[in-house]
Amino acid sequence: MKVLVLNSGSSSLKYQLFDCGDWRALASGLIARIGEPNGELRQTWLNANGATQTRQDTLPISSHEVGIDHIISGLRASGALADVAELVAIGHRVVHGGPNFSQPMIVDDAVAAEITSVIPLAPLHNPGHLAGIAVARQLFPSVPSVAVFDTAFHQTMPPTAYRYALPEFLYTEHRIRRYGFHGTSHHYVAKRAAIMLGKPLAQCNLITLHLGNGASACAIRHGRCVDTSMGLTPLEGLVMGTRCGDIDPAVAIYALKNLGLDAEGIDQLLNRQSGLLGICGVNDMREIDRLAAAGDERAELALGMTAHRLKKYLGAYSAELGTVDAIVFTGGIGENAVGIRQRACADLERLGIAIDTALNAARESNGERRIHSATSTVQVLVIPTNEELEIAQQAFATVTA
Ligand code: ADP
């Protein structure tokens, strides 16, 4: 039995195929620039000897349907999937599930309609997901399509955390509230952290930090999310690659009144031109590290602001949780940026948090590891995320429940 995980965007498809026995990734790949003349098809798979092989083609891919057809043909040709009948489920990443989905769902017409109804909350993501889901359901009617939502893990937040202090009708009539994102990743690393801590997730209090181009923090009490930094959209919270995170909303009003920007312009400003890019002109953390080490003051400010914001959330979530068993760093920055971890956790001994400089800097291990000092009452963990595996396992659990 196998599970195919699809992350379908408006013009791209990423996929990974898992064996449900040992949860090995058998193949992965992507299709880019759907609808353009120079579409791209990339596939990596394990051959019979367990070695990795890759194949790349440039060709026009007119639609999601043609793209998924290419994926299945490629999987068949490589031997990773002998027959579609081997698929027990197709797991679809869905960024926004709105207020009603706290679990993965087998997609029927009602579920598809609900995902459609929250398009106004995620206009850049949900239409692409729906395109992939529609094609999968149409091409493979006997294989259940399971939607796994980035928002689902955060549905356990209490209203004190998820409501905004805005007039009630915005919540009741427009569903404006904090939803949170990266839930699949926060959930995955929380489960791995529980294993490292040697106790059930339901007994763990954690602060998980998913730091990639998008970044979010999550406060987890007894294994359930009680707060998260992203809000109605992924714009709120931490300093990100190109998103500003927390700001005074009056900045948007100022931009509207004084900069001649319309809604689209403000959207671009806050989502695409801000964050690390806005502060220092670069949004790749490796490059920012290099620039700061060479004395670039703006890069240094970007690092300082990123760490300052993280520290605020560590403090706030420590206060919310009362006791914290572990802080977990994950995502491209969380897993690799030694300096950001060091700065974010510096001078937090009063909160029981102390990093071991040598363990934090040790680069020989890329796997799950502990980086706190012997005096730290809070464990500090680095756990590589694996959202695709989590989606595959949730999809499998949903169809076999
Ligand atoms: P996405 O949100 O797009 O999935 P990732 O989780 O891949 O992003 O994270 C991308 C970020 O991780 C980039 O800012 C990149 O510079 C950073 N990153 C990756 N490797 C390293 C490294 N060795 N040191 C510092 N930053 C790194």
What can you tell me about this protein's structure?
There is one protein chain. The protein folds into 2 domains: 2-149, Nucleotidyltransferase, domain 5 (2-Layer Sandwich); 200-387, 2-Layer Sandwich (Nucleotidyltransferase, domain 5). It has an 8-stranded mixed β-sheet, sandwiched between helices. 44% of the residues are buried. It is built from 15 helices and 14 strands. The chain has 401 residues and is α/β, with parallel strands linked by helices. The model has no long low-confidence stretch (mean pLDDT 96). The chain starts with a strand and ends with a helix. The protein has helices at 64-78, 109-117, 126-139, 159-162, 168-172, 183-197, 250-258, 263-272, 275-280, 285-293, 297-321, 331-336, 338-345, 357-361, 387-400; strands at residues 2-8, 13-19, 25-32, 40-46, 52-58, 87-94, 105-106, 145-149, 206-211, 215-221, 224-228, 326-330, 369-370, 379-382. Residues 212-214, 241, 284-286, 289, 331-333, 336-337 line the site of adenosine-5'-diphosphate (ADP).
